[in-house]
Write a structure and sequence with these properties.
By secondary structure, the protein is an alpha/beta fold. 39% of the residues lie in helices and 13% in strands. It binds pyridoxal-5'-phosphate (PLP).
């Protein structure tokens, strides 16, 4: 048996749409495929504006520019996340302030956010881990009371909802990822979603190297020039053409992923009952997108043996984040706001299982091996 941890899924239409982009002769950004993808996101997520970027990292960098951070400003986020969540803000001179996660969803613990707020705090970045929503009502309420901007890191959250609202539609802004390890992919890719209309115009300029090019093409200004800071954040049409093929099948992809997730979840109920593993927790108000199936094992030693045993059977499982507050860069540049005990524990206990379209054929074998390795 050889079961990779991830295998990017192709719908089969990607090359056809790429050939259309090729034939159209428009290869730079913001052509017909970019428009289709942005419109799809605006419709499905219900955001004011969706701007395709070349990664979620790029979208987070744009969001950090839009939040107008000054050196020394503080940004509250979990430590149990990908480096880009912090890096985008650090590039603006801001300090990441790490708050512990909840033991159930592994998302930022909203009850600990307020204690981490200082006079320098400007932004809260909730990360929807495994596509399961953060407690957004509480987070938006804290932000309102303290005048903070909320930027959702929804890299893993496409097609998930919180109380019926799509992730990415709740904060002032949000960032999505279409990296090949995510649910809907374009190799590398992402999008900045804007819900607060006061950021829309400036976002277009930042994305176009700090120029008013978008307004010029809409005929709103008669020449295009340098008006703001910015960079080149547009993906080309080849990437957007690929992404469009994926968006067309997004509902099918989502359903097939959920089927695999649910099969895992049912099979591991027994292991959880005898306290060999803890399964993911999805709160009642959250509908998730099966981005990830993970298990929490009793200890680092258990996890090390578990990953090794599955590897000898050809099944590739991986652990996840080294908490940012313990990383070399995070220690220099960030600050932990509390004891981070849940973060530290989860970082040692969590293991991610293979979850990709096509795994269905080998799923029974994988489950059998996981059950035996966890006994
Ligand atoms: C994948 C991921 C990112 C980065 O996405 P890219 O598109 O690779 O830049 C950021 N944050 C989280 C939580 C992620 O999972």
């Amino acid at each position: 048996m050889n079961v990779p941890f991830n295998k990017p899924y192709m719908t089969g239409k990607e090359l056809w749409y790429i050939s259309q982009a090729h034939a159209s002769g428009h290869l730079a950004g913001d052509g017909q495929f970019t428009k289709k993808c942005s419109f799809w996101l605006e419709q499905r997520i219900g955001c004011q504006k969706a701007l395709l970027t070349h990664s979620c990292t790029a979208a987070l960098e744009m969001a950090a520019m839009l939040a107008d951070l000054q050196p020394g400003d503080e940004v509250i986020m979990p430590s149990y996340t990908f480096v880009s969540t912090a890096n985008a803000f650090v590039l603006r001179g801001a300090t990441p302030v790490f708050v512990d996660i909840r033991p159930d969803t592994l998302n930022i613990d909203e009850t600990k956010i307020e204690d981490a707020i200082t006079s320098r705090t400007k932004v809260i970045v909730p990360v929807h881990y495994a596509g399961v929503s953060c407690e957004m009502d509480a987070i938006m309420d804290i932000a309102r009371r303290h005048g903070l901007i909320v930027i959702e890191d929804a890299a893993q959250g496409i097609m998930s909802t919180y109380k019926g609202r799509p992730l990415g539609s709740i904060g002032h802004m949000a960032a999505l990822s279409f990296h090949e390890t995510k649910n809907i992919i374009s190799g590398e890719g992402g999008a900045l979603l804007i819900n607060d209309p006061r950021f829309v115009e400036r976002a277009e300029m930042i994305r176009e190297k700090g120029t008013n090019r978008s307004q010029f093409f809409r005929g709103q200004v008669d020449k295009y020039t340098w008006v703001d800071i910015g960079s080149s954040y547009l993906p080309g049409e080849i990437v957007a053409a690929f992404l469009w093929a994926q968006m067309e099948e997004a509902d099918i992809i989502n359903k097939r992923r959920l089927d695999i997730w649910n099969t895992y979840h049912q099979w591991f109920a027994n292991l959880e009952r005898i306290e060999k593993v803890r399964r993911p927790v999805v709160p009642r108000e959250s509908v998730h997108n099966a981005h990830m199936y993970y298990l929490l094992l009793p200890s680092l030693a258990h996890r090390t043996i578990f990953i090794e045993r599955l590897k000898t059977k050809g099944i590739h499982t991986v652990f996840h984040y080294i908490p940012l507050h313990t990383s070399p860069q995070g220690k220099i540049i960030g600050r932990a706001a509390d004891d981070m005990s849940n973060t530290n524990n989860v970082a040692e206990q969590l293991v991610r299982l293979p979850l990709w379209l096509g795994l269905e054929d080998q799923l029974a074998d994988v489950i059998a091996e996981v059950v035996s390795a966890a006994q």
